[in-house]
Prior knowledge:
Layout: H1 8-16, H2 30-33, H3 40-53, E1 58-67, E2 70-77, E3 80-87, E4 93-100, H4 112-137, H5 139-147, H6 151-172
Antiparallel strand pairs: 1-2, 2-3, 3-4
Amino acid sequence: MPEYTPMAGEAxxxxxxxxxxxxxxxxxxxxxxxxxxxxxxxxxxxxxxxxRRMNKRIVTPRKAVQTDGNFVVDVELKGATATVQISAETWxxxxxxxxxxxxxDKPLPIPPRKIAIGLAAVASVIxxxxxxxxxxxxxxxxxxxxxxxNTDYIIYGAAAVVAGGVALWWRRRR
Length: 174
């Protein structure tokens, strides 16, 4: 069975690692090689790259504030928040904390919008059943009333209802 020989790129990363753990050191960002003072943007970039190396899913950086020679950067993660302090002189991470987000329990298990839709459906059923029982009892009166109406008026009424529906739809489509 042939032995595994690392490729040229793999050999370099193995040589850069520490001997005991086999961990690979991260390359130093360009910003660390400059002699300029640290600013909030560069501090945020350092924190984001640090958290990515830790395999954290970053949602968005929230704020970067300089206090007592350190930058404090808050980053929102997927299901947690991270607070990282970076030294402004040495550009090193002094301290970091990752705390999970606290979720509040909802007062109702069902959203209020679904409750309102359910109540509207129940009210619609009650109105329909009431109207149905009214028309069932008074069907002879309704039929004689409809027979006395000219058919042109029924067509005009239906056209008005359709035109009103189209106007409402046109108005609400935006």
